[in-house]
Task: structure prediction
Amino acid sequence: MTSESSSAENQTINQRLLEQYNEIAQLAGSLAHEIKNPLSVIRMNMDLLAEELDPPQTSAERRALQKTKIVQDQCMRLQNLLDDFLRFARLRQLNLLPGSLNEQVDRVLDFVAAQAEKQGIEIVRFLDADLPSINLDAETLYSALLNLVINAIQAMPDGGTLMVRTQETRHGVALGFIDDGCGMNEETALHMFDAFYSTKDGGSGLGLPLARKIIDAHHARIDVQSELGRGTKFTLEFPKPARIGG
Result:
């Protein structure tokens, strides 16, 4: 077999696999939508039942209200899981346009400022004022960065420091999140970007995989360093837009 025929065969196989993946993704998305409809009906009826039982008049009604609350909580967990899954499945080609990474970072940090202050977390910003622009899709990148910051805040329930730094590098533009929280063991660090892997109660296990998928779609790389009991450092490096005529 010649190299040309082998290359053509590989291309055909890759195309077939891509088509199968897209078909499965579409079916999974449709299934998630179909599950959301009866789930919404269950939630609505459990809410109505809880209203009828509150306040409970008898011990039987008190037990029924407790069981209703359990079903409500599980419905909410499923709702969040389905929402995360649909966001993960829908992510396709992004509309990348030149923009400011610092601006997206500031948006995220301003959004979490109140929660960080409540937990006794100090956010320290070292954002390079002369940072070159990068190609980005503002809303999806914001979502990915917010996920990483929330992950850092959750790792510091008793307070701490989150240092955020942007800087130009030889190959592009770098963004670092450094926290002094609980850190991760080797197994968690190894699987943190695996879909549905989570160490948090009620977590969907799709937050970090979705963030990784968004970062990959920005043609950026992500590096993670973590030590149990010492903290975690996420480093993202984005390519600089090619110069016109370059």
